[in-house]
Design goal:
This protein has 296 residues and is an alpha/beta fold. The protein folds into three domains: 82 residues, Arc Repressor Mutant, subunit A, CATH 1.10.10.10; 96 residues, Periplasmic binding protein-like II (D-Maltodextrin-Binding Protein, domain 2, 3-Layer(aba) Sandwich); 105 residues, D-Maltodextrin-Binding Protein, domain 2. It contains twelve helices and twelve strands. Keywords: DNA-binding, Transcription, Transcription regulation.
Length: 296
């Protein structure tokens, strides 16, 4: 079986789209379709049916998909172990949501590095949705995310709890507002596919408020850019408490309480259920989930 064709099939199912999978794999759509057709020829059965809702697995396709993640993980494990034998220093690549990756993780990585100086560590920052996509596409092996994705082929371990709060500049904080007052405030939100945005919208929908009723002035994909905008008095935003600790202590940013609105969530370490950790990956996972270590 051609592994490249299998990966193309697997990515198409994960994205539920030929176009999205092709972009992720850096292929043309006709090129990706041809690879899937070749795989179907090798299997001797049709695996996918295209529809206006994306792609749908045939019964044969479901069987192949159920094995695809395991097969690709085993292939990745072999390639990784062979590569490690050829390199002097073991590698550790971590994909992290920005809330943890920019604020809490660097301190933990510093401590871990002091304990295991021989490990080369790399952190890739992205939103939680992208972390899950990279795990499923076998681009990374360890992820740190906001919320539990509830995907059968992703395993999670609890790391810490946090709360999403409405944040304003120092002169606008330490007060309580109503949902109706919130609708009039200029809001700066995270990008649409981020977990922070999803959590805020979900909580507001439960209070009968949708995004169209809010005064959203713009979206940003950087928590730091959002904090800078708030400090400059340009608006307000929903941000995790974890990332505003420093500014709260300094008095430059603070929390605004919204009546009847409390948004709590958890951070998790995530990985594929059939993935076998290297020695140092296992050490890192044990380190980061232990009560004595965790986030600094």
């Amino acid at each position: 079986m051609n592994f490249e064709y299998l990966k193309s099939f697997y990515s198409t199912v994960i994205h539920n789209s030929i176009s999205k999978a092709a972009a992720d794999l850096h292929l043309t759509q006709p090129g990706l379709s041809m690879q899937i057709k070749h795989l179907e020829g090798e299997i001797g059965a049709k695996l996918l049916i295209r529809s206006n809702k994306g792609v749908e697995l045939t019964e044969e396709g479901k069987v192949v998909y159920n094995y695809a993640s395991t097969i690709l993980s085993i292939k990745g494990n072999i390639e990784r172990d062979l590569k490690n034998l050829q390199e002097n220093n073991p590698k550790l690549i971590i994909g992290s949501c920005k809330s943890v990756g920019e604020y809490a993780l660097p301190c933990s990585i510093y401590i871990f590095k002091k304990l295991h100086n021989e490990v080369d560590i790399s952190i890739e920052l992205m939103n939680s949705t992208e972390v899950i996509e990279k795990l499923l596409n076998h681009t990374i092996n360890i992820g740190i995310i906001q919320g539990n994705p509830q995907k059968g082929n992703i395993v999670t371990k609890y790391l810490a709890s946090d709360e999403l709060v409405l944040v304003g500049s120092a002169s606008n904080t330490n007060r309580v507002i109503t949902i109706e007052e919130l609708k009039e405030m200029p809001l700066i939100l995270r990008e649409k596919n981020s977990s922070t945005r999803y959590l805020a919208e979900k909580a507001l929908q439960e209070e009968g408020v949708n995004t169209e009723q809010l005064n959203v002035i713009y979206d940003l994909n950087s928590p730091e850019a959002i904090k800078s905008s708030i400090s400059a008095g340009k608006g307000f935003s929903f941000l995790p408490k974890l990332i505003i600790k420093k500014e709260q202590k300094e008095g430059s940013l603070g929390q605004i309480q919204v009546n009847d609105l409390k948004i709590t969530f958890d951070y998790y370490i995530a990985f594929r259920k059939d993935y076998v950790f290297t020695q140092y990956e296992q050490l890192f996972v044990d380190f980061i989930v232990s009560n004595k270590r965790g986030f600094c």
